[in-house]
Amino acid sequence: MTYYVGALDQGTTSTRFIIFDHSGQIVAIDQKEHEQIFPQPGWVEHNPLEIWQNTEDVIQGALAKANLSGSDLAAIGITNQRETTVIWDKNTGKPYTNAIVWQCTRTDEICKELSREQGQNRFRDKTGLPIATYFSGPKIKWILDHIAEARSAADKGDALFGTIETWLIWWLTGGPSGGAHVTDVTNASRTMLMDLNTLNWDEDILQILGVPHQILPNIVPSSDTNSWGATRGDGPLKAKIPVCGALGDQQAALVGQTCFDMGEAKNTYGTGCFLLLNTGTTPVPSRQGLLTTLGYQINDQRPVYCLEGAIAVTGALVQWLRDNLGLISSAPEIEDLAETVDNNGGAYFVPAFSGLFAPYWRSDARGIIAGLTRFVNKGHIARAVLEASAYQTRDIVEAMNKDSGVELIKLKVDGGMVGNELLMQFQADILNVPVIRPQVSETTALGAAYAAGLAVGFWSGIEGLRKNWAEDKTFHPAMDSTVREKYYKEWKKAVDRTFNWVE
To answer: How far is CA 94 from the centre of its chain?
Structure first.
């Protein structure tokens, strides 16, 4: 009997392979960063071949650390940075250009043209999404419009499109030698090409964007008993292991946090920040600037939908403070620096580096620091950087409460920033709800492991997964309501100052 499940967590800045046991505890982890490529202002790219090489390396690394072989794994699940777009030659596996990353704004003109006649919500009834540079569909169009070789191959049927999980599943299961070309429903729902109700590619939208159907992967459940294929015996696992679970990173965190009941919500604090609310088996249209998206689908069961608030820059702002300004030498130092002051000193930092995502959807916005006086020092700036994540989360919660008609009463949190207790306490204070941190903070990878493990019977059902979840710490709100609303009013004023910067 195999006692472990492997989760490949391919994120915006790094790739990790994590091995979990039956109780959802981490057995081993290996991680490798990849290059962030910025060819022009607002453009962000990754090298897909570097990501695949790193994938092979971290699988081997984690197995070696645990003194395990590939055959000790019952299944492999994948979670990934969503919307990031790759188009490659199906015969050679060579990408036609670098992957266009979800943060990239090069498709702004395409999005403006798509919105010109019928507005930003032109496709929202079908896809649950506004027209925005965030999503994969416009990125596919950009590649096909600008890379002649890609357009020619796509028209001939020699090119394949995928978000990152599709790219990795294809390589893991054989690559040019018969690799599976699939995407799970959660990732498909982020392309702006899938109908939320039918879970099929929408032919009308494909035609409008000029995307040939033959380059698209098959849409499959997130947890699929019908394995999409096994890993190659000569690959990094040196064994044939079923690949049968995939979830976009934020949906994976929802599953890892066991938010299986309608009304449960989680927020992940990573490069960006993503708050998902389980709305059950019926999609809830948003009128407040949120996204309606797939939460997960287990086999042929009815899919579960979510409302999502996506924030582009949270942890990335801490990286910016470290790398661009040099105020700190490592990310954890920001908490110590912020604790040298009692408050933000009147300073607010709105990190609209490439526009603002939910609930504003303003590609014309750019980042500002507002409220500066001679009193403000680097401690206040550090505190304003942290508080920006909490304020942006409140923007999402306010919109979510209006859309769902249900007031949020608690928030489960995960991701790299939740170890920052100053941020977590401020988040509880500014939301006025308890913020709950789990014992296993790697909930994104855990969700991918759960999806794969459910498919092969490693876990019998979602009730068993709930038993694995355990609380680490709850942060209770302790801020006076008058202070809370004063801070939030000033934040909203700062947000307003970011608009219309780009003509």
So the answer is: 25
**Cα–Cα distance measured from residue 89 to residue 159, given in angstroms and rounded to the nearest whole number:** 5
Q: Which residues, including other chains, have CB under 8 Å from residue 152's CB and lie 6 or more apart?
A: none
CA dihedral 232, 92, 140, 213 (to 10 degrees): -80
Q: Note the pLDDT of residue 82.
A: 93
469: left (phi over 0), alpha (psi -120 to 50) or beta: beta
* Residue 349 vs residues 42, 218, 363, 493: alpha-carbon distances, Å: 19, 42, 17, 11
- The residue written with tokens 């308890």 in the block is 434
Q: pTM of whole model > 0.90?
A: no
The pLDDT value given to residue 46: 97
- Tokens at residue 124, please? 């929202």
Burial class from Cβ neighbours inside 10 Å (0-12, 13-18, 19+) for residue 182 reads buried
How deeply is 81 buried, as exposed, middle or buried, from its count of CB atoms within 10 A (0-12, 13-18, 19+)? buried
H or E segment at 305?
strand 304-311
Contact 225, 299 (CB under 8 A): yes
pLDDT attached to residue 137: 96
Residue 180: the pLDDT is 95
Q: Classify residue 405 by its DSSP letter.
A: S
Length of the chain counted residue by residue = 503
- Name the region of 44 (left: φ>0; alpha: ψ -120 to 50; beta: rest): beta
Residue 440's pLDDT is 80
The sign one gets for the Cα dihedral 297, 298, 299, 301 is negative
Distance CA 50, CA 316 (A): 21
Q: In the prediction, which pLDDT does 396 show?
A: 93
- Three-point CA angle 485, 490, 493, nearest 5°: 130
Query: What does the alpha-carbon distance between residue 86 and residue 435 come to, in Å, rounded to a whole number?
Result: 37
Distance CA 132, CA 363 (A): 8
Task: Determine the pLDDT at residue 2.
Answer: 67
Q: With residue 444 as reference, give the H or E element that holds it.
A: helix 443-456
Please name every residue paired with 353 in a beta bridge, in sequence order, or none if there are none: 355
Q: Extract the residue ranges of the chain whose pLDDT is less than 70.
A: 1-2
CA dist., res. 158 & res. 112, Å (int): 30
Secondary structure string (H, E, C) spanning 450-473? HHHHHHHCCCCCHHHHHHHCCEEE
Residue carrying the six token digits 């927020």:
267
